[in-house]
Amino acid sequence: MKKIALHWQILIALVAGILYGVWLPEHVGYIGWMGEIFLRALKMVIIPLILSSIISGVTGIGTAENLGRLGLKTILYYIGTSTLAILTGLIMVNLLNPGVDADLGLARQVEELDITSESFGETLIRIIPDNIFVAFTQGRMLSVIFFAILFGFFIIRSGEKTRSLLTGFFDSVFEVMMNITMFIIRFTPLGVFGIVAFQISQSGDLMELARSMGLYMLTVALALTIHGTLSLPLLARFVGRVNPLRHFRAVTTPLFTAFSTSSSSATLPLTMEAVEHRSGVSSKITSFTLPLGATINMDGTALYECVAAIFIAQAYGIELTLFQQFIVVVTALLASIGAAGIPMAGLVMITVILTAVGLPLEGVGLILSVDRILDMFRTTVNVWSDTCGAVIIARSEDETLKV
């Protein structure tokens, strides 16, 4: 018998959770524990996963022949476009306000965000932990991310023996943590069933939930469309001096593959082949920029995480200040660097952002039902950004392209 795909299992669990929450609200305690266990399992992997993924990503950059001019251009492009994508998402979610005035019965569950009690200066100071193990236990994600970047950077600067040993160690830890994470994700349908049933039993307004989720999907889709059809092509045209339409035609196959598989890593061989042989980028550029991009350049994922976090805040009746949204932007940028190129990696990364700003992880239940659909779109934007980066950097190196 053919196994039902995970996203269909999640959809079935969503419907079942809604029906259970509407018809049997007084018995939701019997199944609510499944959602709680699922969220606790996600919390369990957050710290070791983000620590190992960022250290592995930073050391992976350093294992290239050298960072030099090419590495600097590549990293600046990836950071720049990811930031641009996040800001696009930030503008759209504040314009459309998909979670504002959504009477989902959630506002009473949250009294105050952790970051509201700290000034801007205090938050910046607390990014540097006085005790990293306390930061681990308290889930201070900005401190963990800061330490991971610092640790990875000085691994690169260490001697050959130390660099090789620690790089291999954290690569292995990251692989193991991803295996554990994927094991937990297999139980997502049960978690969704428990979470959604509980949330519906608290609100019961199905029409309001459907309206909010539809507007949330529209917000993410519009933001991704703006970034993919305006921001990136304009960069390719005016910075890379290439024809974005011709380049798009050259990389159509990997883009469709990314859309269908929701995996930038699985698409990487096709991406490299198309960019090198159809867009005319040299092997030197493609072999450096594209594998690196599949690891740390997640424009679509970063945009999605920002919109999702602010949508959840809106759904819980919390109005984020400009400073609090700045924290979301920074955390989304840093978390996207550690997002693996696999389906539903964004699920884990959104828990990092929610933890960083003190929002309840139960809010994940609001977005899981539509995550798979949006995953297809954001992965396509991830790969499209990688290919645009390759041609822009190639042009900056005075290469003659076919596009």
| CATH topology group | Proton glutamate symport protein
Secondary-structure class? mainly alpha
Distance between the termini: 47 Å
Mean pLDDT: 81
What is the CATH class?
A: Mainly Alpha
**Backbone CA Rg:** 21 Å
Report the order of strands and helices. HHHHHHHHHHHHHHHHH
Task: Please give the CATH architecture.
Answer: Orthogonal Bundle
Uncertain residue segments: 107-113
The residue fraction in helices comes out at over 70%
Compute the number of helices. Answer: 17
Overall 3D form: globular
Main sheet makeup: none
The number of distinct β-strands equals: 0
Strand content: under 5%
Secondary-structure topology with pairs:
Blueprint: H1 6-23, H2 29-62, H3 68-96, H4 120-127, H5 132-138, H6 141-156, H7 160-185, H8 188-203, H9 206-238, H10 244-250, H11 252-261, H12 264-277, H13 283-296, H14 299-315, H15 322-337, H16 345-357, H17 364-396
Helix pairs in contact: 1-8, 1-17, 2-6, 2-7, 2-8, 2-16, 3-9, 3-13, 3-14, 3-15, 3-17, 8-17, 9-14, 9-17, 11-12, 11-17, 12-13, 12-17, 13-17, 14-15, 14-16, 14-17, 15-16, 16-17
